[in-house]
Specification:
There is one protein chain. The chain has 675 residues and is mostly helical. It has 35 helices and 6 strands. Helix 21 packs antiparallel against helix 22 and helix 33 runs antiparallel to helix 34. The termini are close together.
């Protein structure tokens, strides 16, 4: 018991996280922990009622830190040690100890042990058992439980073999009347034995339509839902396949794919419907591979299945067909059919119809792959080029040209792509610009590489883009000049003239930029200028740079400017940047400027205390926890204790907040328990 009573809330929070601890305490306080018991080796076993009834076991080993020693298993969907249900069990147990209530001993035959993993279920129930040999001989050991199962297997087999033919026939008949699954199994065997394949195929089609008639849905919180059961359909398909009727299975293939994918698209669950449907796929694609279909039709079926699949359900099974060795003639027939389909698709209007562009791109991807497999790779460039102008898929074309080391062609198409897509498809234009930067790197055009880095920096100011800019500028021989201009931009928010308009337009009043601006970047820069409505310094980036350089004075300088820039909004209205950086700044200057660090933490504590919500409570607790070692280093521990007491007194009417504060003082969960 002592190892449990020495726990603090800090121990539990470090193990399970603050959210799990908070919710676990709620579960325990509301009586959700049922049938709590403890094994002789100190493991807690209980049922916790949440969205469902979950079996939970929690253990605490010795010889390690408390956090490392805690481990739990739970039948809930979370699936890892330290869930809220495990916390609830620990909290409920300690509350029983505090009240001096007797905790029942765990029953070795309790069915909950078998619900949990083998590792957690193998409990040493007998204190006198000292060796593995004794454990194996114990009537409650895992091996003895296996022996019991094996003994029953022998008994049942002997019981069946002892029956006469007539008795056994009567027995099986009785089972078919009690268990529909046995009835269906025998019915299918008889039908196939009589050669009635059409009958079984008809039943399989009927079962397919029944199981796909309703979308799947699930509600894990309340335990409700409907997940389609494909078991009976799979069994029928397996029966047909096992007896060599692969063509019969294939005749259902198109409908299986269409109805299954349609059901998945309409379902509202966490992938359970897709998982259930996937159970049918191995037998379907095995039958495709073994069927009498012409080889190119097998490949086309697999490709069509992949084209229907937006959920990652098909790929592994389709590969069982696609990875087979097919001749170039087969792939050539596949390519011709895909080319015909591509030509028959409706034209895309200005590359701005996403659905049609996506459809064309997927089919053309398969067409290109088929052409390569057929030894007709010289035809792929024409496909890439035609589709680039139809759908805006310039990225694919330029990547192909780069892979072929056709850099001039790649640059020409990338420039055309930027010009065509920068207004309606700016993401594609940005990607093409990055490819042009890569081409410039291959050609060692470092001033162009640096110009691209500058565009990325001004578009998305940050420590990473700043460092990439300096790296590129160093290769171009103008690092210091670029660094000076970039820092001026961060400090003032003013863009260099040539980054705002094209050079030579007569703009004045700002510093010139020392790097050339490629003409193809100008549309992107001008587009960015239109959405740069906000102006002002980027103090957050300057703080990041100062923290990286470990310059505490600079960190505080830029933090103070950030604070001043937002202080006019009034208490409780500070921007996201200040909330984010206050914690980082306080940590960065804790050793060099401990009082400033404490001031920042205290300021954030006061700001969050005005908000009566769980997230604010947790934030306050995190700041208080970080203040404690700083005050201790200054020999001012009493200030922390007094601050905690003052806050607890001021907000004593917020029970959830008080619970969180209780975790901070390092006291055991049970008052006055030995630590």
């Amino acid at each position: 018991m002592k190892k449990w009573t020495s726990l603090t809330w800090d121990d539990l929070e470090e193990w399970a996280g603050s959210r799990a601890v908070s919710r676990g305490r709620d579960y325990a306080q509301h009586g959700c922990v049922q049938d709590l018991a403890i094994s002789k080796d100190g493991r807690l076993l209980a049922t916790v009622t949440g969205g469902d009834d979950y079996a939970v076991v929690v253990q605490m080993e010795t010889g390690k830190s408390k956090t490392e020693a805690l481990h739990s298993e739970c039948t809930c969907p979370v699936g890892h040690s330290g869930c809220k249900h495990a916390v609830a069990v620990v909290a409920a147990y300690l509350e029983m100890v505090r009240r001096k209530e007797k905790v029942p001993a765990a029953d070795p035959e309790d069915s909950r042990w078998s619900e949990l993993s083998d590792e957690m279920a193998e409990i040493d129930f007998d204190e006198d058992i000292k060796t593995t040999k004794h454990q194996a001989n114990s009537k409650h050991s895992p091996s003895s439980r296996r022996d019991k199962r094996e003994n029953w297997n022998d008994k049942i087999r002997f019981h069946i073999q002892a029956k006469s033919r007539e008795e056994l026939a009567d027995f099986v008949w009785a089972l078919t009347q009690r268990f529909p699954e046995i009835y269906e199994e025998l019915r299918e065997r008889i039908a196939l034995g009589e050669g009635d394949v059409e009958r079984l195929l008809k039943e399989a089609r009927k079962e397919l339509r029944r199981v796909t008639a309703e979308p799947g849905w699930s509600d894990h919180w309340n335990g409700g839902g409907h997940i389609p059961d494909y078991t009976r359909l799979r069994h029928r398909l397996e029966r047909l396949s096992d007896l060599g009727h692969h063509d019969a299975v294939v005749s259902l293939g198109t409908e299986i794919m269409a109805r299954g994918m349609g059901q998945i698209s309409q379902s509202n669950d966490e992938g359970e419907t897709a998982g259930a449907f996937a159970e049918c796929l191995p037998v379907l694609f095995n039958s495709i591979a073994e069927s009498g279909l012409p080889p190119h039709q097998k490949v086309l079926f697999a490709i069509d299945a992949c084209l229907q699949d937006d959920y990652g359900v098909i790929d592994a099974e389709a590969d069982k067909v696609l990875d087979r060795e097919f001749t170039p003639e087969v792939w050539s027939a596949v390519a011709d059919e895909l080319a015909r389909r591509l030509e028959a698709l409706p034209k895309v209007q200005d590359g701005n119809d996403f659905h049609r562009s996506y459809e064309r791109d997927r089919i053309s991807d398969w067409l290109i792959d088929a052409l390569n497999q057929a030894g007709r790779g010289d035809e792929t460039a024409k496909i890439y080029e035609g589709e680039a102008r139809r759908t805006g898929s310039y990225e694919r074309l330029v990547k192909f040209l780069i892979s072929q080391k056709r850099y001039d062609d790649a640059e020409q198409w990338a420039r055309e792509g930027i010009k065509t897509t920068h207004q309606k498809l700016p993401g594609i234009a940005s990607s093409l610009a990055q490819m042009l930067s890569e081409i410039a790197g291959v050609r060692r055009q470092w001033d162009v590489v640096a110009a691209h880095a500058a565009w990325r920096f001004f578009d998305r100011p940050g420590r990473d883009t700043f460092e990439q800019l300096l790296e590129g500028a160093a290769k171009a021989g103008c690092r210091e000049e670029v660094r000076t201009r970039a820092l001026q931009f961060l400090e003032t928010g003013n863009f260099p003239k040539s980054m705002v308009v094209a050079p030579g337009k007569g703009e004045s009043g700002t510093e010139e930029w020392p790097l050339p601006i490629p003409n193809y970047l100008l549309p992107l820069l001008q587009l960015e200028n239109k959405r740069r409505n906000r102006s002002g310094p980027h103090y957050e980036v300057l703080i990041d740079l100062a923290i990286a350089e470990k310059s505490s004075d600079e960190v505080l300088k830029w933090y103070d400017k950030l604070y001043a820039s937002q202080s006019h909004r009034g208490p409780g209205s500070f921007g996201y940047g200040l909330y984010t950086y206050s914690n980082r700044v306080a940590e960065a200057v804790a050793q060099s400027h401990p009082q400033r660090s404490l001031d920042i933490y205290r300021q954030q504590v006061e700001m969050n205390l005005t908000q009566a919500k769980q997230s604010a409570y947790e934030t306050v607790a995190s700041y208080l926890r970080k203040m404690r070692p700083i005050l201790k280093s200054l020999h001012r521990q009493g200030e922390w204790t007094q601050l905690l007491a003052d806050i607890r007194l001021r907000y004593r009417n917020r029970p959830r907040f008080v619970e969180i504060l209780d975790r901070l003082d390092g006291k055991t969960i049970i008052p006055n328990a030995p630590s």
